[in-house]
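Work Package 3 (structural annotation) set out to generate three-dimensional models for the target panel prioritized at the project kickoff. During this period the team completed the workflow that converts sequence records into discrete structure tokens, so that structures can be stored uniformly alongside our sequence database. As a representative example, we reproduce one entry of 472 residues exactly as it appears in the project archive.
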Amino acid sequence: MKPSTIKKKDKKLWAGRFSEATDPLVDIFTNSISFDYRLLPYDLMGSLAHLNMLARQRIIPGPEAKRIRSGLLEIQKEWNQGKLTFPLEDEDVHMFVEKRLRKKIGPIAGKLHTARSRNDQVALDLRLYLRDQIRDLKMELQSLQKTILETAKNQGHLVLPGYTHLQRAQPVILGHHLLAYLEMFSRDQERLSEVFRRVNSLPLGSAALAGTSFPIDRTQVAQALGFSQISPNSMDAVSDRDFVIEFLSAASILMMHYSRMSEELILWSGLEFDFVEISDAFCTGSSIMPQKKNPDVPELIRGKTGRVYGHLLGMLTTMKALPLTYNKDLQEDKEPVFDTVETLLNCTRLLSGLWSNIRFKAEVMEKAAETGYLLATDLADYLVKKGLDFRTAHQVVGTIVAYALERNLELRDLSLATLKTFHSVFKADVNTVLNLASAMSQRNSQGGTAPQQVKKAIREMEMRICSLQFDL
């Protein structure tokens, strides 16, 4: 179903006022069918709804509408069977459909274009396409959320260091760490739903820019196509690409979250961390170093994030100086959208597969959490509970850490007698604070990493994920 190259000069359907044929290079430069052929099923969907309305409004006689409908359904069948090719001389998917319809049923095909323009037609097709893609993306993202949630439920008790400045900071449990990403993805789901709401507005009926003199019924078309609203201004309807920019923005934020997750997977799978092993199915080898196992999937996801960012910036730049209404510049909206959709769906599916097969190295993670004075803040909190102000407690514990560093000791290695030399309030109960499991359970504030809080958060997240709506 891919386009072929231009083989011959072709009489354009719009060429009535032209005395010269377009330059062959112009034909190549201005055509969009090489990529917008993807919109064909949506173009047919919109055309059938438009045709039914024209017939009901008696703008087209019933018998003629029946012939046109039959021709459109034949083209739809050919698309479904993969029989169509798209010659570049057809310019774009709209001209392709009109010309193919004309070959099937004759000049009567031209009546289908009554009361519409390619301007409102392409805006409709892109909105119909994006509606479907947003639904698909939300479902794929939900699948990824469920996969990570299962990991949090089954292995969420494992302990690992939490980091600030990429330095070990405080111990957390794995479930808490994974829930942080699930919160990000929940916001992504909300953003996609908001984008969908603004995508779901019918532009058809705006014609070129000023509406039409025919007695059309836009509400009927909106209902037939499942749109929740009708664009209120015809000039805005044909020139608006805010919905594209919003989608690319939401996509960029989602890819940023994927990239952050990928960065951690890359770090965690290296020997310097050694927290996880990524399945061989999601890694590749080196052409020269036999021992290598490279995390190419997360690396490429991280790399493709810049690609999606570029599409957003490119679309903003395209739109920044366009006067009302339609300009050919708007042809540049489709390739970024198509590529972003494909990139997002692929990345989401790959991450789902990767997380389904990941292995965590519990002993390595816990050992890392037990070293590096990660319970220093807990020790300072202990002193505050004994009556010291936090700044004094911070100073005391900092001095203790310096003492331990000089002697290559961990905090748990210091005796009570030694601790008392730094402050007299230390008692035997300090051992509870310096025990990893006990210290973790004390971080029981809402949203904290205490196991009881994480179990509650997992239950709540499961309800949120399962309640997601896709029939938006």
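The chain is about 60% helix and 5% strand.
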